[in-house]
Design goal:
Shape of chain A: globular
Strand order of the largest sheet of chain A: 2-3-8-9
Number of helices of chain A: 14
Number of domains of chain A: 2
Radius of gyration of chain A: 22 Å
Largest interface: A-B, 44 and 44 residues
Structural class of chain A: alpha+beta
CATH topology of the largest domain in chain B: 60s Ribosomal Protein L30, Chain: A
CATH architecture of the largest domain in chain B: 2-Layer Sandwich
Radius of gyration of chain B: 20 Å
Number of helices of chain B: 2
Helix content of chain A: 25-40%
Oligomer: heterodimer
Helix content of chain B: 10-25%
């Protein structure tokens, strides 16, 4: 009986959030519609706030309110009707949640340009009017990323990869497709990844700590801004293939928007300027109340992101990753039950912060962490890797393999006679060639759902490495990890607990979830 | 066939007798937890040796990896034991590339083995600075004279460029730019190592060339395209003495105005 009640509660909560997604009435007076479609004539204000799963997400913008009409970020520049904003929605922290994709499917019968065959479906070869052809976007919020094989260098010439790759499993059919697959006339590998938030970009594109001409993880040359020649932080995109926002915009225009000719210089400049003006963070917690009170922790809320120093290390007790100043360490209790409940929730967020910074565990067999000077294993904390001040990213060159896409740690559908659910992501077999050393932690043969950075670098040691994601606005943009394998923050925490045998208590898990949800 | 240890040779008649204080060997590393940061140890001929502590990227000696054996090139010191092991000082550590699942020992913390000193950095956040002040800073253009400049990159046994080399390559790159280098000469070497049991290990053949060509490729890849490059390598290894054999694993970069 209790279980049934719990299920009903969960269902109602889910319906409530979906209602908030599709109904302008649910936003409250004065809140703009959640969905910002291409070509709309609207005004983007300096501040936007939207309800999300844990409270409210805030989007702050430098400068004056912006008319979106004819602005290239909001304009369908290519033939498929999409604009940048299609996959970078303010209500989703400038990313795109699976719930939003579901709402758009429901609202448009699958005719929204979001579901464009090229990458809004599991494969363009599938019948596009069927929901199942878009299941990865609808269930996991994943966009198809088609990359050439072998990889191409910055000069466009093929790289001789250090490994061979075979398709082991291909639920979408795209990797074995005669037209789109590995054996097609233009050999291509399709992987499926979450759109990354286009906000807080001064942190993701900084020129500060850790940005060197050579990559701090392996000594190879860092990618460079093609215009200035300066090395980049290599923290944009899951595989770091774009050194700058401008290059990313060009890449997205050609692929996601299917533009046949590149955007003009003016359009690119406007897109980059807009992206560079946005700051996203959770602004209110459903249980802990406002995250932006003047006497509250200085590191929470979008205004903190706007003010913060970019590209500096925060894994220390002088600057902190997320400054909280112990403001919520111990709060008073009184006669007001609501205040007591709020204060208890705030203390939980503070405890989650302290776990993030100080709770040690053994980090083991993680490429580009254990291999870069700390030893294997390293007894460290969350903040060791998630160390950039204000964002919780790596400061530079932030790709690592923690096992989100590589077996044996990646989430796989159990295969047994009692489970009808089939795996929905591809699986590749990677074999490191004899001319290179085997992968130090996975050996010469690696099974992976997404080779990650290795599809760009061609390097065996990069297989399954993914550029770390910023931790801001998480509550607004589930699911998590680059392959959408964690539906909730609880699943994120459970993944780490299982992967590194941490042994978090239930209280520790909940405190961490509350902390992450408040960012 | 072990990748990277393919050229294990029997004791060479030409090799010098090892110094008695030298402890050069290959073994599984051992982690010992403490109340603070973990220690890294290795056992050789029934004795436990302390290799290093976990600190951060700035450490002059970085810990090895479980799941792999480690090549230790060290000198037994008279210092007090740390974590139960006799400290080797100096010590050079090279992770053996081939995985070895038998190297998997983590010893629990014991009161008697806790550190008796403050480690250079705790296991969690730092106090706002790196553990060691060893990372070289790129040269300032104003300080660079238009004269021949030399840089040396040192390598782990059988190793190529790794995470430590950006801090050595970046100054060379910046200096070359600042002085407007016309020529870059690169010479790659491979080395041999004399172990304490008399075994001589030779780095794999072709590595000197690979190192030299990789450095040239990295400098060009980082944008240093203007100078002309002369890339050479010396395949022959010097006779190992068991004392400073690590110095033979190197690439020399010469910048000429």
């Amino acid at each position: 009986m209790r279980l049934r009640q719990a299920l009903i509660t969960i269902l109602l909560a889910g319906v409530g959030w979906l209602y908030a997604l599709v109904s302008p009435l649910a936003q409250g007076a004065g809140t703009p519609d959640r969905w910002w479609g291409p070509g709309e004539d609207r005004t983007w204000p300096q501040r936007l706030d939207y309800e999300d799963g844990q409270g409210q997400i805030g989007v702050l913008r430098d400068g004056q309110p912006l008319a979106t009409h004819d602005h290239p970020f909001f304009t369908a520049l290519g033939p498929n009707g999409r604009a940048c904003v299609t996959c970078h929605q303010p209500a989703d922290g400038m990313s795109l949640s699976a719930a939003t994709a579901q709402a758009r499917w429901a609202a448009t019968g699958g005719r929204d340009p979001l579901f464009a065959a090229i990458d809004g479906s599991n494969c363009p070869a599938l019948p596009q009017d069927q929901e199942t052809s878009h299941s990865l976007l609808l269930k996991r919020g994943l966009i198809r990323i088609a990359l050439p094989w072998p990889p191409r260098g910055e000069d466009g010439r093929p790289i001789d990869p250090e490994f061979t790759i075979e398709v082991v499993r291909d639920p979408s059919g795209c990797n074995t497709s005669a037209e789109y697959g590995l054996n097609s006339s233009r050999p291509t590998i399709s992987v499926y990844r979450r759109p990354r938030p286009l906000a807080n970009t001064k942190y993701t594109t900084h020129q500060n700590f850790g940005v060197l001409p050579f990559i701090g993880k392996n000594g190879l040359p860092a990618t460079r801004d093609p215009e200035t020649g300066k090395p980049s932080a290599m923290n944009l995109m899951s595989d770091a293939r774009a050194p700058t926002l401008k290059v990313q915009a060009l890449d997205a225009a050609a692929t996601h928007l299917q533009m046949r000719t590149p955007p003009s210089a003016a359009q690119l400049a406007a897109i980059v300027a807009f992206e560079s003006s946005l700051y996203v963070a959770q602004s209110r917690s459903r249980t802990a109340g406002s995250l932006e009170e003047p006497d509250g922790p200085s590191g929470l809320g979008p205004a903190a992101m706007q003010k913060g120093e970019a590209g500096v290390l925060g894994n220390n007790t002088t600057r902190w990753v997320i400054p909280m100043e112990n403001k919520w360490k111990s709060l008073p209790r009184g006669d007001d039950a609501a205040v007591n409940e709020r204060n208890a929730a705030r203390e939980s967020i503070q405890r989650g912060h302290d776990i993030y910074m100080f709770r040690t565990f053994w980090i083991r067999d993680s490429m580009h962490l254990n291999s870069v000077g700390l030893g294997n294993p390293a007894k460290r904390t969350c903040a060791t890797c998630h160390g950039m001040h204000m964002t919780g990213m790596d400061t530079a060159n932030g790709w690592m393999d923690i096992g989100t896409t590589n077996l044996p740690w990646a989430k796989e559908e159990p295969q047994n006679p009692w489970n009808a659910q089939k795996p929905d992501l591809p699986l590749f077999k990677v074999t490191c060639k004899d001319r290179v050393a085997p992968h130090p932690f996975l050996g010469r043969v690696i099974y992976t759902q997404d080779p990650g950075r290795a599809l760009i670098s061609g390097r065996c040691n990069d297989v399954g490495t993914i550029v770390m994601q910023q931790l801001r606005g998480l509550s607004a943009r589930p699911p998590y990890f680059s392959n959408g394998s964690a539906a909730t923050l609880r699943e994120v925490v459970d993944f780490y607990d299982r992967r590194y045998e941490i042994g978090y208590s239930e209280q520790e898990k909940q405190d961490l979830i509350n902390f992450l949800g408040a960012l | 066939m072990l990748h990277g240890l393919a050229l294990v040779l029997a004791a060479g008649a030409q090799a010098a007798q090892p110094d008695p204080a030298v402890r050069n060997f290959i073994a599984c590393p051992i982690v010992r937890d403490t109340a603070s940061v973990p220690c890294w140890l290795a056992e050789y001929q029934g004795e436990l040796y302390f290799l290093t502590l976990q600190t951060d990227v700035s450490a002059p000696v970085n810990p090895p990896w479980l799941g792999h054996r480690v090549m230790v090139e060290g000198r037994r010191s008279d210092k007090a034991r740390i974590c139960g092991g006799i400290p080797l000082d100096p010590v050079h550590l090279s992770v053996i590339a081939e995985p070895d699942a038998s190297c998997n020992q983590i010893l629990p913390a014991e009161e008697r083995y806790n550190l008796t000193f403050e480690p250079p950095r705790p296991p969690g956040p730092s106090g706002g600075k790196l553990a060691f002040n060893t990372l070289p800073m790129p040269a300032q253009a104003a300080q660079v004279k238009a004269e021949v400049q030399h840089y040396t990159l040192n390598y782990d046994f059988n190793g190529l460029v790794n995470f430590k080399h950006p801090f050595q390559l970046a100054p060379a790159l910046e200096t070359a730019r600042a002085m407007g280098a016309k020529r870059v000469e690169i010479v790659g070497h491979r080395g041999a190592a004399l172990l304490s049991d008399g075994t001589v290990l030779q780095e794999r053949s072709g590595l000197a060339q690979q190192r030299a060509e990789q450095v040239a490729e990295l400098l060009r890849g980082a944008g240093l395209a203007a100078p002309s490059y002369t890339v050479r390598w010396i395949e022959a290894t010097r006779t190992p003495n068991g004392v400073d054999d690590y110095a033979g694993r190197r690439v020399e970069i010469t910048l000429l105005p």
